[in-house]
Amino acid sequence: MGRAPSAVWNEVHRNRVHRQYVPAKAHHKAYVRRKYAKYQGMKIVHHPALREEVETRLLDDQSPRAVARRITNREKHLPSISKNAIYRYIASVYGRKIETRRFLKKRRRYRPRGSKKSLSARTFIDARPAYINTRSRIGDCEADFIVAGKSGVGILLTATDRRSRASFIEQILQVTIENVHRAFLRIKKRFPELRTLTTDNDLLFLRHKELEQLLHIKIYFCHQYHSWEKGTIENTNGVIRRDIPKGSDISRYTKRFIQRLEAKLNRRPMECLKDRTPQEVLDAYRKKIRNNKKSRV
């Protein structure tokens, strides 16, 4: 059997019923013992409101650590919880649905893309002002593209504000420079605070000077093969890849799905935002601007 004699002896004597070992009964007995064990996340199980909050956020693909911080620091009507307690709950018999979802959402291997030609008349990230590097204001974004697989069609344009972490996604099925510019205009309409853009050297930015005039912003470029210089958008794309894996056909996703994915990104509580969500930070900023304008009048 490939097991130590003591392990077999413990199994037989611990899970037998009426001095007889029946595999089906032994399995049920072990299941019941594990279900009602104290270490099985019982704090969450015994508090319905806490359990509903934890499960809702976990099924929204938020990490146990982020969920624990959010509940402890922001949801004062609920008892505080640790990330380890949430991990125990996921591993228990009560968290099978969540455990299965997390397993199916595992990231695929990264496949490096081919080299790109260089663009002309770029302003590199070295010339970016210090207040952008320190995330001092809202409106300084990073942008990137998520491309479809070899047999797929289309790309996703993603943009994330460096300070508020508010994210915006646009689906582009016919990949042209003109359509990319139109997608940026749609983002600008939803995020009028946009002031600067930091991106990579994709050929779709070939007419970046025209895009600067169109959006009334300044564009900065990372150095070739230095993707870590725009770490905010790389992190956002990693989260998006949980729902749109590498190699996916972008054209198969509906506009409604993309809108819901964008909303999902903006309701994630983040440690860098003191466990607030990007949408909460952006709404608070806009409310402050409106109040300042009213006070001046």
Calculate the terminal CA-CA distance, rounded to whole Å: 83 Å
Q: Percentage of helical residues? A: 40-55%
| Total DSSP E strands | 5
Radius of gyration: 25 Å
Apparent shape = elongated
| Poorly predicted segments | none
Structural class: alpha/beta
Q: What percent strand?
A: 5-15%
Overall average residue pLDDT = 90
Major sheet strand order? 3-2-1-4-5
Order of helices and strands: HHHHHHHHEEEHEHEHHH
Largest sheet: 5 strands, mixed
Number of helices: 13
Which SSEs are present, and which pair or pack?
Elements: H1 5-15, H2 23-35, H3 42-45, H4 48-59, H5 64-73, H6 83-91, H7 96-104, H8 130-133, E1 140-147, E2 155-161, E3 167-172, H9 177-190, E4 196-199, H10 208-215, E5 218-221, H11 231-240, H12 255-265, H13 278-296
Parallel strand pairs: 1-4, 4-5
Antiparallel strand pairs: 1-2, 2-3
Helix pairs in contact: 1-2, 4-5, 5-6
Structural notes for this entry:
45% of the residues lie in helices and 10% in strands. The protein is of the alpha/beta class and 297 residues long. It has a 5-stranded mixed β-sheet, sandwiched between helices. Strand 1 (140-147) and strand 2 form a beta hairpin. Helix 1 (5-15) crosses helix 2, helix 4 (48-59) crosses helix 5 and helix 5 (64-73) packs across helix 6.
Can you tag this structure with a few keywords?
alpha/beta, 5-stranded mixed β-sheet
